[in-house]
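[job 0412] stage=fold_complex status=start
inputs:
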Amino acid sequence: MAKLSLMYFSPTHSTKKIVSAVGKVFFEKLLCETTILDLTKLAARSRDYVFEEEDIVVFGAPVYGGRLPQLLVPLLQNCEGNGAKAIVVSVYGNRDYDDALLESCDLFTDRGFVVCAAAAFIGQHSYTSKVGTNRPDAEDLLAAQTFAIAAFNNVMSGSKVRKRLRGNRPYKELSATMRSNKQPPSVDNGRCVHCGNCIAVCPVCNIGKNLETFDRCIGCGACVRFCPAGARSFSDPNIIAAREKLEQNCTVRRWPEFFI
Ligand SMILES: Cc1cc2nc3c(=O)[nH]c(=O)nc-3n(C[C@H](O)[C@H](O)[C@H](O)COP(=O)(O)O)c2cc1C
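[job 0412] stage=fold_complex status=done
writing structure:
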């Protein structure tokens, strides 16, 4: 009996929306046991995943520096596919996905999955609401449904992705800024209501219970996006500089791409 797993890392929830939209189509067609593997949670990244041939995995991750977020690599390198079918999705902030989708597909193939379909979608940029604003939007979610139907047909026939994936090997080199940890977003004490949301949503547990921070910030933007009082803002100079560039250069709408 097929089992469906929706596996994603999604600090600001755009990847989660796309994977859920794809997963919904699969669920409605298969009506099978479905598990959500939310790798945004540290605990979910601290265990091994073993799949079986009849399993189907819809995987999604955001693009960080044109690559797969590197904190996922050890986890994916430990997954055991055993012939399970994978649908692989990258979600990027309207700049580019560079080699991220190829890198993800390579990892899944190396771990013994059959990659049946892959796609790149667009989400609002983690750094600014002016780039990829409110995406994925209704049009993106419709595209996710269309993609899922084509992906489902490939899964049923056991077909691998045929279209050549965009991206290069060796993968794009990560810049020194991308490789290093970030200065955590600052808190406006006049606004903070001490709700603890920022602590709960941080994927790397970088915020302590008195809002003290450690040295693990990956700059994902979850604490900024989900602060109900708008008390958190980016303070890392590299992020602020990148945000300016993005707002200047990356506002023309980009479209989802499917590799079937
Ligand atoms: C550290 C970091 C690096 C990023 N690098 C890129 C990039 O190279 N290209 C791009 O288009 N978007 C980039 N983004 C934006 C995210 O890919 C985008 O906002 C995505 O929708 C976030 O997914 P999530 O909402 O599931 O967290 C980056 C975001 C972060 C936090």
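[job 0412] summary: The helical segments are 14-30, 73-78, 100-110, 138-157, 176-179, 197-201, 222-225, 237-249.
[job 0412] exit 0
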